[in-house]
Amino acid sequence: MTTRRSARRIPAIAGAAALIAIVGLSACAREEEEAPETTTTTTTTTTTTPPPAEPTEKAPRIDPGGPNPFSPDVKAPPAPTAEPGDN
Fold first, then answer.
1. Which phi and psi (to 5°) does residue 59 adopt?
2. Which stretch of DSSP H or E encloses residue 11?
3. Which of 32, 16, 12 is CA-nearest to residue 24?
4. How far, in Å, CA of 11 to CA of 8, rounded?
5. CA separation for the pair 13, 21 (Å, rounded)
6. SS3 sequence, 27-71?
7. What Rg, from alpha-carbon coordinates, does the chain have?
8. How far is the C-alpha of 26 from the C-alpha of 20, rounded, in Å?
9. 9-65 residue pLDDT tens
10. How far is 27 from 20, CA to CA, in rounded Å?
């Protein structure tokens, strides 16, 4: 009877200790630092827009009636078929 009771107590104590450790570590992480003194400075910035990007000439053009330029040229051989009933 005592071994059964101690077999249940040891994991319960270990779980309680882990829970207390997690709560303690999370409480330490909540420390807040004082905010530094703030000063107000006014700055003026000017921005210029960059010229629009030009399209690249290397990209293939897709025509609605033409072939797909992204399809592979090499075709894989078909999978071999087995006799019916032979798995």
1. -75, 135
2. helix 2-29
3. 16
4. 6
5. 12
6. HHHCCCCCCCCCCCCCCCCCCCCCCCCCCCCCCCCCCCCCCCCCC
7. 35
8. 10
9. 999 999 999 999 988 888 777 666 666 677 777 777 777 888 887 766 666 667 777
10. 11
